[in-house]
Amino acid sequence: MNPLHLTPVQLDRAAGAVLGSAAGDALGAPYEFRPSVPDDVAIVMKAGGPWQLGEWTDDTSMAIPVLRALARGASLDDEAVQGGIVAEWCDWARTAKDVGIQTRQVLGRATDASAAAARDAARAVHDATGRSAGNGSLMRTGPLALGYLADGREAALAASARSLSGLTHFETDAGDACAIWSLAIRHAIRTGELDLRGPIDVLPAGRRARWHELIDTAERLHPRDIPGSNGWVVAALQAAWAAIVGADTLAGVLERAVRCGNDTDTVAAIAGSLAGARYGASAVPFAWRRHLHGWSGADAAALDADGLVKLAVLAARGGANDRDGWPGGDRFATPRTGTLVRHPHDDGVWLGDLRGLDRLPADVSAVVSLCRVGADQVPQHVGVHHEVWLVDKPGASNNLDLDAVFADTADAIAALRAEGHSVYLHCFEARSRTPSIAAAYSVRHLGVPATRALAEVTAALPHGAPQPWFTEVVERMSVKEQA
Fold it and tell me: CA geometry: angle at 240 spanning 120 and 165, to 5°?
């Protein structure tokens, strides 16, 4: 497999390893250091403690320098690149709201911001305390596999995972956990399969049986019932795996992980990296995704969900944009003729194409993009911009779960309208994706029958011609029950 030839679904899953982890981190943050949450209590994205609504913690902040290095096309096997990551961590730690106890000790002991100094400090902390197998290196491992997706890179990934873990965590358990989890993420991105057993083979033969037994235990229990503190890397991995095997959606995995109590953000971040590699970035609900934000580097504006996705795609592609300049381009070519019309069932929703962004009505305050959009193409006055992963081609290699994406996007439009936004919904030509999602919104939230919704929305667009694999989704859609 050549990283430049990844399918859209594989890229979706690669981005999911990063976005799913950040979503779990932000979801779990306000529940941290509290008792486990009963099953009849809803887990919600909220502010809490020092964390704003949707703000990620040190789990994601420490992963970002790794992600940025890969997005530049750098090799994590390079000692100088690892030193650059350490330097970014040191800068971040000076003003961070929260830094893990062990990580802060290591960064504080390091004589300079180099990989060698960090490893020496990690060994010194281990020798002084007698242990160094906290979950702080596993929590940041989500992006790592994106640099090793090519064929035959398993051993190199395992070695890199162990090497980056050793920058702050000397103990063998931490390195083993990072190697196992990174290989599982790689496998999920490439194949869509969850497998935590196969990666154990990368360990020395004498350590494999123990890890199989630990996974056996995890598969029998709820995350909150895993023995030992989930601040320990082994229990954190077990809790994350227990969350994954006990749910069948990304949202379900993350909610289950947060219910464990104690180090909730870290367990959910770990679970989210592997679950995201299985279910994709497209599975992160708009209700969570819209709020995600946090530290992105010294003197840089905060990253958001779309920023993480673009970095992840670049990382998976070895730092290269595709032939159209995506995802790093500022502007993409637009259709020759522009389309901009009102939705036939809701005059607070405008429908159009990519060119329509250049002549938006002044009252449009939210944009929902169903195609690639350059960084400078959405007008600055737009307060909310939601980019949807939706590929207008048939086949399993292009979209992961169309029914879920259609439902979540229709719900996003409804939520924005309920908040008083005038919404612009568009794709490249307003030919297939735009009428399909517009009809889904009509069916799910306005009570319009599917056949009528598709016909009337399509008729309103000069070039409307929904693809059959999209109309089938609309026809399966049911009206969402209103609270």
Answer: 15
Question: Residue 338 CB: number of other CB atoms within 10 A?
Answer: 16
Average pLDDT over residues 224-250: 97
pLDDT digits (tens, 9 = 90+) for 247-262: 999 999 999 999 999 9
pLDDT in tens, 184-216: 999 999 999 999 999 999 999 999 999 999 999
**Domains, the chain, ordered by start:** 3-316 (1.10.4080.10), 340-476 (3.90.190.10)
**Residue 98 in tokens:** 């929260």
Mean pLDDT of 3-27: 95
| Strand pairing report for 384-387 and 364-369 | parallel
Closest CA to 98 of 138, 58, 62: 58
pLDDT of residue 296: 80
98 vs 4, residue with greater confidence: 98
pLDDT at 299: 54
Cβ proximity of 161 and 273 under 8 Å: no
Residue whose C-alpha is closest to residue 368's, from 276, 444, 437? 437
* pLDDT higher than threshold 70 for residue 483: no
d(CA 400, CA 279): 7
Q: What are the strands of the beta sheet with 422-426, ordered from one edge?
A: 340-343, 346-352, 422-426, 364-369, 384-387
Is pTM beyond 0.90? Reply is yes
CA-CA-CA-CA torsion for 302, 306, 308, 313, nearest 10 degrees? Answer: -150
What lies within 8 Å, CB to CB, of 344 at 6+ separation is 456, 457, 459, 460
What is residue 481's predicted lDDT score, i.e. its pLDDT?
56
Token pair for 50: 């020092």
Instruction: Please say whether the beta carbons of 181 and 142 come within 8 A.
Output: no
Residues in contact with 289: Cβ distance below 8 Å, sequence separation at least 6, in sequence order: 19, 23, 305, 386
Q: Name beta bridge partners: 294.
A: 303
Task: Round the average pLDDT of the chain to a whole number and report it.
Answer: 95
What sign has the CA pseudo-torsion 351, 357, 362, 363? Answer: positive
Poorest-pLDDT segment among 2-11, 119-128, 361-370:
2-11
Contacting residues for 214 by C-beta, under 8 A, at least 6 apart? 234, 237, 238
